[in-house]
Amino acid sequence: MCPDLIEQLREQQLVRERNGLLRSRLTLEGSQETHISIAGREFLAFCSNDYLGLASHPALIEAACVGAKQYGVGAGASHLISGHFSAHHLLEEAIARFTGFPKALLFSTGYMANVGVVTALVGRDDAVFADRLNHASLNDAALLSRAEFNRYPHLDLSVLEQRLVASKARRKLVMTDVVFSMDGNIAPVSGLLALCEKYKAILLLDDAHGFGVLGKQGRGTLFSFDTFNRHSSHIIYMATLGKAAGVFGAFVAAQSEIIETLIQNARSYIYTTATPALLSHTVLKSLELIEHEEWRREKLKQLVAKLKNELQLLRWTLLPSTTPIQPLIIGRSEDAMQVSNALRERGILVPAIRPPTVPKGTARLRISLSALHSEEDIERLVMGLRELAQKT
């Protein structure tokens, strides 16, 4: 590598460090739990998307072992060559039934699912309309598609409608997070669908943080609303299987014609090795637990309510989220890191989220709750935050 480039990269890293934006990784020494081990020390963790506490569930571990014995540990090929196993097929059918859509298609990750959908359905003569706070995967997908890329202000349906009216694009695609991963608020799905039906646009909903947690029996955010057609032909529904479902992967559910188009044209589906079939076999068990163990969602609601009540008088602002994602706005990146590090010294892990992931001046602690947290865990976190609020 060119020495000049090495020096440039080194300087970039130094600048990031000076600005409090340098990222680092934690190395867990055991399973994903509410209490985890790092470098021989135990921490109370509020930093996982394992909202239902299924990532280390004994039934899922057993299902993975059974799946490995039946299917092996590697798929060996892409889905369109010889990597599509019966477990994949059964899971796609189960997801379609669970979400109520005609068909579902598995992808390796949510990132690959969003890229696959957008680039397969829109191109140079088309237009994409995206909420400004959408996940990076949706933004990158729009750029890769070469469609005209329009970003409307967060949750602003009036601006979105104006831009839909003005657009002369051949095909229009509106895309949004359903539960916004850094704010925890929920998109106005009913209003979005009404606009898409009115202006003949496709609506791509990324429910990565709602599936399993929200809606009847955890079927997703669409099942939180009763006043619209949740299975409209305008909707393409994407969700991940590595958060509330506790395993790995993602899926897209939609009309049969959409799914068939993705099988034929989605490059992130066609040109990659399939995920191991043992994972799909495991997710089948996860879907059963999601559907039948309502206590997990009830427990989350109780924990969210307790946290919000306990942090009301804190000088930092807790955003108005009703989901397990509870963002505490600190402000400057340096201050957010200081609070996060101070909590870590107390044996509590809460990540500091900084620009460019969130807008400048809104660096925050992203508190993620799990059904396996206890009320005592919440009290310990609140006590630590109150002490730090008085000192900093």
Strand order of the largest sheet: 3-9-8-7-6-4-5
How many DSSP-defined strands?
14
Number of helices: 13
Distance between the termini: 44 Å
Roughly what fraction of the amino acids lie in strands?
15-25%
Give average pLDDT, whole number.
95
**Oligomeric grouping of the chains:** single chain
CATH architecture term of the largest domain: 3-Layer(aba) Sandwich
> Please, how many domains?
2
Category from helices, strands and their pairing = alpha/beta
CATH class of the largest domain: Alpha Beta
Shape: globular
Gyration radius, rounded: 21 Å
Write the layout of secondary structure elements.
Elements lengths: L2 H16 L16 E4 L2 E5 L12 H14 L14 H14 L3 E5 L2 H12 L5 E5 L4 H10 L2 E5 L4 H10 L5 E6 L11 H10 L3 E5 L28 E6 L9 E5 L1 H10 L1 H4 L6 H16 L2 H16 L6 E2 L6 E7 L1 H13 L2 E2 L2 E2 L9 E6 L6 H17 L1
Parallel strand pairs: 2-12, 4-5, 4-6, 6-7, 7-8
Antiparallel strand pairs: 1-2, 3-9, 8-9, 10-11, 11-14, 13-14
Short description:
With 392 residues, the chain is of the alpha/beta class.
Task: Describe what this molecule looks like in 3D.
- With 392 residues, the protein is α/β, with parallel strands linked by helices.
- The protein folds into 2 domains: 21-52 and 294-391, Aspartate Aminotransferase, domain 1 (Alpha-Beta Complex), CATH 3.90.1150; 58-292, 3-Layer(aba) Sandwich (Aspartate Aminotransferase, domain 2).
- It has 13 helices and 14 strands.
- The strands form 3 sheets. Strands 3-9-8-7-6-4-5 form a 7-stranded mixed sheet, with helices on both faces.
- β10 (317-318) and β11 (325-331) form a beta hairpin.
- It starts with a helix and ends with a helix.
